[in-house]
Amino acid sequence: MPIRATSAGRVASRGCRNRAEFGLHVTAKRVRAKVATGRGRDCSEGLPIMTTQTADTGRHVIVHATRLTAEAFQPYGRVISTARADLTRKDGDFTARLHVSHRVPAVIENINRHMDHSQLFIPLGGAPVVIVVAPPDQPMVGFDPTTIVAFVADGTQAFTFEAGTWHIEPRALVSDTCNLINVQTRGYERHTELIWFAEHHVNVALTIDLAGL
Prior knowledge:
Elements: E1 25-26, E2 31-35, E3 50-55, E4 58-67, H1 70-73, E5 77-79, E6 83-86, E7 94-102, E8 107-108, E9 110-114, E10 119-123, E11 129-134, E12 149-153, E13 159-161, E14 166-167, E15 171-172, E16 177-185, E17 192-196, E18 202-208
């Protein structure tokens, strides 16, 4: 059953707001970044598997995280490698900020998206991170939580979220916190949609099998 009602707001930006270069070409119109071509593999390989359960207390969705690959991630964004591509925006300057992310939770409480721009994350220090996303074609009214997928990035992979891709902030996998560079526009809150699952009696649980990655 899709989510029928929605709630927007409660969007908070974290981390330092100071502009920084960090080896990227940051301008008012675009950010140049290296992205993978993703050739030579079956796109279905390694895709996460979603299962749902129904209980008296509400609807339960279980998301199983798998290893991040360029092919599997293609519907949601890009995995950074050797090619180059632009980030896109409707308005607002791009900024590069230091973002401190906390340990991945067992339950995903909300999901959001930015309709005005694509977003780039660059993990620092080689720390693996967990990425939780849903397709950009999912509407805010009628959002289907079974479309949520999760990936584990090994700490060497930068990645983008395309405009409209539902996501949570990348989360630390093996430590309490990890640092990333977050490249996005100023004023993104004006173009953000946010869903809180508890308001719709939906529980989204995340499972990660480290041995299987």
